[in-house]
Design brief:
- Chain A: GO terms for molecular function: 4 iron, 4 sulfur cluster binding; lyase activity.
- The complex is a heterodimer.
- Chain A is of the alpha/beta class.
- Helices cover 28% and strands 15% of the residues of chain A.
- In chain B, strands 1-9-8-4-3-2 form a six-stranded mixed sheet, covered by helices on one side.
- In chain B, strand 2, helix 3 and strand 3 form a beta-alpha-beta unit.
- The chains are: A alpha/beta, B alpha/beta.
- The interface between A and B is large, with 44 and 38 residues.
Chain lengths: 362, 195
C-alpha cells in the first residue's frame, strides 16, 4: 500500500497498515472502463523518455556496435520481457507505420501479442504478421527468413549486451577492453571451444565483429541469422531494457562472426530434415516433440518414461509467418518481394543454396 | 516546441526518423519540418544534455520549457552552429575511449543535397551505412569540412555532424570517412553514380 493510494485520507496515510476501503478499489476498477489509455501520451512513452531513447539510438548508429547507455524506463511489463525493444520501437513508431512483433520466430506468443497490442492501442499503428508489410519489426531471438529492405528497421530485444560477459563478469573491465579493442580473452575462449568440441560450438549470442572495431553480442539469435547482419539493406537496432544499453548495426556495414582460418564459422545444420508443415529445407528449423497418435498415452501411471516413448520428434520452421506462406506456395523464395537479383540473406537464400545443404554430409 | 512552430509529438518523431535515416545512410538527404535546424534541436535537446546555441529564439523556446542547459560549444553535448558561428569544431568534445557516445552532435544550419550541387561543397563518404561511396554536398566551406574530418579522425572518439536547413537534413557520423572533393575527377563521377 503506497502513500498515494491513501493520500485522500491524511490520517490513514501516516499509518502504513490501514486498509483501503473496498468501495474505493471498486471505484478504481470502474474508472478502468474502456482501454484505460486516456491520459497516456502518444505511443505510451512521454516525450522526455523518447528523446532519451532517440539520442542513444542516433549515437548507437554513429558508433556501430558500441553499447550506448540510456535511461531505461519502467514499462508495463517486467524488465527482461522486451522492455528495451518496446522503448526503442515506441520511439520510432508513428501513426502511418506498420508494426510486426516476433517472439522466437512466432507472431502468436503471448509476449509478442501483448507488445503488438500495446503499440496498436497507444501509437495507433497498423499491425501485421507479414514481414514484407512491416516498417518496424521488433523481434526476440530471430531475424526473419524473408529479406529485409532499406525501408525496414529491425529492433532486437537483448538480454545480455556484452559478448565479453561470458569471459569476464566485470562490466568495468569489459568496457576497458572495448575501449582498446582488446578481445584476446574472447579468442582464448573460442580456442578452448575448438579444443573441447573440434569446432566453435556457440549456439547463440555468437561474438561478432562490427565494422572491424567493436565486438558485439548479436542477441540470442541462432548462428543461422548472424550472416544476415553483414552488408544488409536495413538498419538493426539492439535494445536492452534491463541493462539499459542500445547498440546498432547500420545498413551496408561489415559484420563478421569471429572464427579461425582453419575453424570457420558455421551455421546450424539440419541433415535430411525438412519442415513437417511446409517442406522447407532452407529455413531455420526447430525440433518439435509431439505426442504420437498411439493410444497408450497414460500420463498418470506411466510417469516420465512411458510418456516420453509416446512422443516423436519432428522439425518445423521457426519463422511461422514465412512457413504459412510456404504452405500455400512451397516454391516461394525468401526474396520473393524484391525485384533485384543476387540477394544474399543468410544461409540458403536462392543464390546461396549450397550453404544450407552443405553441412549435410559432415 | 510549439514556440518554434514544431509539433512536440509528431513532428519531432518525423524529425527523428529522418535523422535516423540520414545517420544510418550517410549521403542521403531526408526531409523534416521547417526550419530544419530548429526541428533537429527540438527533437534532441532537453535538460538531460547541454546545448550551445547563440540563437535567441531557440534559447527562449527551450528555456520556457525548462529544457535549456546551456554550455560553451567546447563542452556542449549538442552544438547548434549557425552560418556565422565562431567556434572551432576541432575543440568540441569527442567523448572518451570508454564512452565515445559522449562526443558532441554538431548541428550545422547549412544546406545539403545528395550528389554534387552548385554553390555547395561536395564531400565523398565511405564507411558503415554507405554502399560503396556516396557524394554529399553541404553548405559549409571546405575548411570547415577539413576541421570536421579532424574532429572525426580519432574514431571511435569524435563528433557527429548534422546539416540542416530549410526542410532538409543530412548527416556525417564519425564512423564514415569523409574526403572533401576539390574538382570533378573521373572517379568522382563514378562515386556519384553509386550515390
Amino acid at each position: 500500500m503506497t502513500d498515494e493510494r491513501t493520500a485522500d485520507d491524511p490520517v490513514a496515510s501516516t499509518d502504513g497498515g490501514t486498509t483501503v476501503p473496498t468501495d474505493s478499489v471498486d471505484a478504481v476498477l470502474d474508472s478502468l472502463d474502456g482501454d484505460g489509455l486516456s491520459g497516456y501520451n502518444y505511443a505510451y512513452l512521454d516525450e522526455h523518455t523518447k528523446r532519451e531513447v532517440r539520442r542513444a539510438t542516433l549515437k548507437a548508429v554513429a558508433v556501430p556496435g558500441h553499447q550506448v547507455p540510456y535511461a531505461s524506463r519502467p514499462m508495463p511489463l517486467a524488465r527482461g520481457w522486451g522492455t528495451g525493444g518496446i522503448q526503442a520501437s515506441l520511439s520510432l513508431l508513428g501513426p502511418d507505420e506498420t508494426f510486426k512483433v516476433v517472439d522466437q520466430g512466432a507472431d502468436e506468443s503471448v509476449n509478442a501479442a501483448n507488445i503488438r497490442r500495446l503499440a496498436e492501442n497507444t501509437a495507433d499503428v497498423e499491425t501485421t504478421t507479414d514481414t514484407t508489410e512491416a516498417g518496424v519489426v521488433q523481434t526476440r531471438h530471430r531475424i526473419p527468413e524473408e529479406v529485409l529492405t532499406d525501408e525496414q528497421i529491425l529492433v532486437l530485444q537483448v538480454p545480455i549486451t556484452d559478448p565479453l560477459r561470458k569471459v569476464d563478469s566485470s562490466d568495468a573491465a569489459n568496457r576497458r577492453r572495448h575501449a582498446h579493442k582488446n578481445y584476446g580473452k574472447m579468442w582464448v575462449h573460442l580456442y578452448e571451444n575448438v579444443v573441447e568440441w573440434g569446432e566453435i560450438n556457440i549456439a547463440s549470442r555468437y561474438p561478432t565483429m562490427v565494422a572491424e572495431r567493436y565486438l558485439m553480442d548479436p542477441s540470442p539469435i541462432p548462428r543461422w541469422d548472424v550472416p544476415k547482419l553483414d552488408d544488409a539493406e536495413n538498419l538493426y537496432v539492439f535494445a536492452a531494457g534491463r541493462e539499459a544499453r542500445i547498440y546498432a548495426v547500420p545498413p551496408h556495414t561489415d559484420v563478421e562472426p569471429l572464427a579461425f582460418e582453419d575453424r570457420e564459422f558455421t551455421v546450424e545444420r539440419f541433415p535430411d530434415a525438412a519442415c513437417h508443415a511446409c517442406g522447407s529445407t532452407d529455413t531455420y528449423l526447430v525440433e518439435v516433440s509431439e505426442e504420437s497418435e498411439s493410444p497408450q498415452t497414460t500420463r498418470e501411471e506411466g510417469g516420465g518414461e512411458a510418456a516420453d516413448s509416446s512422443f516423436e520428434t519432428r522439425y518445423a520452421c521457426n519463422d511461422s509467418s514465412f512457413c504459412e506462406k510456404r504452405r500455400e506456395d512451397s516454391d516461394i523464395p525468401k526474396d520473393h518481394h524484391l525485384d533485384r537479383e543476387g540477394v544474399d540473406w543468410g544461409p540458403g537464400t536462392p543464390d546461396n543454396e549450397e550453404a544450407s545443404s552443405g553441412g549435410a554430409g559432415e | 516546441m510549439r514556440a518554434l512552430g514544431i509539433d512536440p509529438v509528431h513532428e519531432t518523431r518525423e524529425t527523428f526518423r529522418a535523422l535516423l535515416d540520414a545517420m544510418s545512410r550517410p549521403g542521403t538527404v531526408e526531409s523534416v519540418p521547417e526550419p530544419a535546424d530548429y526541428a533537429v534541436v527540438a527533437t534532441l535537446v532537453d535538460h538531460e544534455v547541454t546545448v550551445a546555441t547563440d540563437d535567441e529564439t531557440l534559447r527562449e523556446a527551450l528555456s520556457s520549457q525548462g529544457r535549456l542547459d546551456a554550455a560553451p560549444p567546447e563542452v556542449a553535448d549538442i552544438v547548434h552552429a549557425r552560418e556565422s558561428h565562431a567556434f572551432d569544431v576541432r575543440e568540441c568534445t569527442r567523448g572518451t575511449l570508454v564512452e565515445p557516445s559522449g562526443g558532441a552532435t554538431v548541428v550545422y544550419e547549412a544546406e545539403c543535397a545528395s550528389g554534387r550541387s552548385e554553390d555547395l561543397t561536395p564531400v565523398t563518404l565511405f564507411g558503415p551505412g554507405v554502399d560503396g561511396t556516396a557524394t554529399l554536398s553541404v553548405g559549409v566551406p571546405p575548411s570547415e569540412l577539413d576541421a570536421l574530418a579532424t574532429a572525426q579522425s580519432e574514431y571511435p572518439r569524435g563528433v557527429d555532424a548534422v546539416f540542416a536547413a530549410g526542410d532538409r537534413v543530412a548527416a556525417i557520423p564519425r564512423s564514415v570517412t569523409l574526403t572533401v572533393s576539390d574538382e570533378t575527377t573521373a572517379d568522382e563521377t563514378a562515386a556519384e553514380e553509386v550515390a
